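Hi W., the zinc ion complex you wanted:
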Amino acid sequence: MTIRPITITGEPVLHRRAEPVEVIDDGIRELVADMFETMDAARGVGLAAPQVGVGLRIFTWQMDNRDGIPSRGVVINPFVSASKAPVGDPDPHDESEGCLSVPGESFPLRRGEAATLTGLDLDGNEISYAATGWFARMFQHEYDHLNGFLYVDRLQGKWVRKAKKAVKANEWGKPGLTWMPGQDRDPFGHDDVDDDYEDDVIAEGGHAGASEDELAR
Ligand code: ZN
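Structure:
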């Protein structure tokens, strides 16, 4: 297994629709093993194949939940169907997401409270899960990656401008940029001992400060 570099916004593979997996062979199994190792090294709760530079329809996750879904999993050729996002302005405290491909940044957006995931596991068996709350948000975030969208593409109002400024300030938005989990400084501050845990953003999902109640919501 190998930790792979994580692509940063501007890399074309992040901004185009990923291709279906035709055959689950040794190459796919190796890619998935690498994705798990990369996700763990980056402390992400989810990771989509385009984030390691591979334009295939695969994502992994690592997230505790009360939905009866395995806390660690992978889906191949997924379909995610979500309930309609509530109208109104998003709450910056409760609805902020982070993305390993927009490292260190966090912006709020509304998502559906419930989502169903169908697809194949690594053995080619059909899986089907119904998720709520943060788990549903993560499924929607990862599925967006496979369709060429980042969460910052879905922002509204003043958050559009703030995200654009952040991308510009970091000199992202061009091809070829990556960061290396385990080597580069953790962009979401997971290594900082004196960090305020409540304000910690879990990349690819939401706040580490989300309570059990919020997880169960
Ligand atoms: Zn992401």
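The two ends are 36 Å apart (CA to CA).

W.
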